[in-house]
C-alpha cells in the first residue's frame, strides 16, 4: 500500500489512498492503514464505500475544496476483497484517470491474494472482532466467499462468522467441470472443525486424483470412519456441473438442502438421501443427475438455515425460505447469502446455537449457447434471467 500511494501520488496527483477490506461477516469495511493499524470500520450498508462494494461499480463524489473521492471495488474472479478509495483534485479526475484507477484496483486485488500467503497484516486488518479457534480453522479451510466464470457465479456466507463450528463449503473448477461441496460435521467447537477438516481434505484429495464424485464421497467416508469408527460423521452434498451442457451429478450424503429458482418458481430439488460420511464402514454412493438451464439459480442451505424456528415454532423452511429466495431474485449471487441470513435472523428472533450456511449458484450456461440468452458474462454479476 505504501508503494501504491507513492505511485498514485506521483502519476495522478492522489491526495490520499486508502484500502478498506471486507470483514468476515461482509457487513463492514475495515480500513487498512499505512502500517496495518486498525481504524473505525465503515458499514457496508448506507455508505458510499459500501455502495461501491455492493454494486461492484466505481462510485465518485465531489467533496469540499475541489476534491473528488473515488471508491473502486477490489475484486478477484468475483471474490469481493474490499474497496480502494482514492482522492484526486477535481482537475485530475478525468474519465481516463478513473479507468486507470479501476485497473489499479483489479491489480491490487491479485497482489493482495499473493501477499496473504506470506503475511498476516491483511487478514488481521479485516477482523472487526476476534475469531474463535474453531472459526479460525474453518476460515483457513474455505476457498473464498465468491467466484465467477463465464458459465456461473457463486456466492457463499457462513454465520456466525467469528465463531463458526462444523459447516463448510468448497469448490473447484477446470475447463470442463465445476465441483461444489457443502459439509456439516457433527458436534461443536474445535472438535467439529477438526472433523470437517478431515472430511474436506479427504474430498479434495480424492477430487484432485481426478475421480468422480461418488468415489470422492466413498474415499472421504473411509477416511472419516477410519478415524472415528462411526462415533462422528459428516453430512455432505456434492455437485459436479458439466460446463458444456449444464448436466449436474449429485451425491446427497446428509442434511444440506438444494433449492432452485427457475424464472419465478421456487422449489426444492429432492435428492435420494444416502448415508453421511463416516457413519458406516465402506459405504457405497450412487450419483443422481439433473439439469440446470441458463438463468437458473441454485441455493444450498445447511440445517442451521432450514431447521431454524421462529418464536412461534414455525420452521424457516416452511414458507419463509422460498419467499426470501424469490424476493432476492434480482440480486447477484454474491449478495444472496447475506440477504437470506439477514432474513433468517429476523425470522428466528434469537441467536442460533448452530452454524448457518448459504451457498448460491447462478447458472449462465456456456457462451455461444443460444439458450443462454444475450449478455451473459462472467463480470456481469446480475441476477438470473
Please characterize this protein's 3D structure.
There is one protein chain. The protein has 385 residues and is an alpha+beta fold. Helices cover 30% and strands 29% of the residues. The chain is built from 10 helices and 17 strands. The longest helix has 21 residues, at 95-115. The chain starts with a helix and ends in a 22-residue tail after the last strand. 44% of the residues are buried.
Q: Which ranges are low-confidence, i.e. pLDDT below 50, for 5 or more consecutive residues?
A: 372-385
What is the string of helix and strand elements? Answer: HEEEHEEEHHHEEEEHHEEEEEEHHHE
Give the averaged pLDDT, no decimals: 90
- What profile does the largest beta sheet have? 6 strands, antiparallel
User: How much helical structure, as a percent, in the residues?
Assistant: 25-40%
The helix/strand class is alpha+beta
Explain briefly what this protein structure is.
The chain is α+β, with helices and mostly antiparallel strands. It has ten helices and 17 strands.
Features:
385 residues; alpha+beta; six-stranded antiparallel sheet; globular
Question: What's the arrangement of secondary structure elements?
Answer:
Layout: H1 2-12, E1 16-22, E2 28-32, E3 42-43, H2 48-55, E4 59-63, E5 67-76, E6 79-89, H3 95-115, H4 121-125, H5 133-141, E7 146-148, E8 152-159, E9 167-173, E10 177-185, H6 189-208, H7 213-228, E11 234-242, E12 247-253, E13 257-262, E14 265-268, E15 288-291, E16 297-301, H8 303-306, H9 320-327, H10 336-348, E17 356-363
Antiparallel strand pairs: 1-2, 1-6, 2-3, 4-5, 5-6, 7-8, 8-17, 9-10, 10-11, 11-12, 12-15, 13-14, 13-16, 16-17
Helix pairs in contact: 5-6, 6-7, 9-10
Amino acid at each position: 500500500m505504501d508503494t501504491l500511494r507513492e505511485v498514485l501520488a506521483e502519476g495522478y496527483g492522489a491526495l490520499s489512498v486508502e484500502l478498506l477490506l471486507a470483514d468476515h461477516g461482509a457487513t463492514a469495511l475495515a480500513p487498512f492503514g499505512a502500517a496495518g493499524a486498525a481504524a473505525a470500520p465503515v458499514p457496508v450498508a448506507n455508505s458510499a464505500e459500501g455502495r461501491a462494494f455492493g454494486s461492484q461499480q466505481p462510485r465518485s463524489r465531489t467533496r469540499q475544496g475541489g476534491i473528488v473521492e473515488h471508491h473502486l471495488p477490489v475484486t478477484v474472479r468475483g471474490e469481493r476483497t474490499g474497496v480502494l478509495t482514492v482522492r484526486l483534485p477535481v482537475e485530475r479526475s478525468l474519465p481516463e484517470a478513473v479507468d486507470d484507477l479501476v485497473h489499479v484496483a483489479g491489480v491490487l486485488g491479485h497482489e493482495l491474494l499473493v501477499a496473504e500467503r506470506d503475511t498476516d497484516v491483511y487478514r488481521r486488518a479485516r477482523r472487526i472482532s476476534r475469531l474463535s479457534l474453531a472459526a479460525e480453522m474453518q476460515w483457513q479451510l474455505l476457498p473464498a466467499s465468491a467466484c465467477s466464470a463465464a458459465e456461473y457465479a457463486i456466492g457463499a456466507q457462513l454465520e456466525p462468522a467469528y465463531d463458526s463450528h462444523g459447516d463448510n463449503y468448497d469448490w473447484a473448477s477446470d475447463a470442463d467441470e465445476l465441483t461444489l461441496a457443502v459439509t456439516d460435521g457433527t458436534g461443536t467447537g474445535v472438535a467439529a472443525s477438526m472433523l470437517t477438516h478431515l472430511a474436506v481434505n479427504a474430498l479434495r484429495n480424492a477430487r484432485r486424483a481426478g475421480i468422480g464424485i461418488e468415489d470422492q464421497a466413498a474415499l472421504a467416508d473411509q477416511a472419516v470412519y477410519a478415524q472415528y469408527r462411526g462415533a462422528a460423521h459428516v453430512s455432505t452434498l456434492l455437485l459436479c456441473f458439466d460446463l458444456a451442457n449444464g448436466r449436474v451429478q449429485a451425491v446427497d450424503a446428509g442434511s444440506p438442502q438444494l433449492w432452485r429458482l427457475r424464472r419465478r418458481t421456487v422449489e426444492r430439488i429432492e435428492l435420494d438421501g444416502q448415508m453421511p460420511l463416516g457413519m458406516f464402514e465402506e459405504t457405497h454412493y450412487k450419483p443422481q443427475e439433473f439439469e440446470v438451464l441458463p438463468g437458473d439459480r441454485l441455493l444450498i442451505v445447511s440445517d442451521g438455515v432450514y431447521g431454524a424456528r421462529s418464536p412461534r415454532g414455525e420452521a424457516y423452511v416452511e414458507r419463509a425460505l422460498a419467499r426470501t429466495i424469490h424476493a432476492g431474485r434480482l440480486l447477484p449471487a454474491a449478495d444472496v447469502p447475506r440477504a437470506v441470513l439477514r432474513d433468517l435472523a429476523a425470522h428466528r428472533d434469537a441467536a442460533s446455537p448452530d452454524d448457518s450456511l448459504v451457498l448460491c449458484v447462478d447458472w449462465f450456461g456456456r457462451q455461444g449457447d443460444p439458450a443462454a440468452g444475450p449478455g451473459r458474462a462472467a463480470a456481469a454479476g446480475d441476477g438470473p434471467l
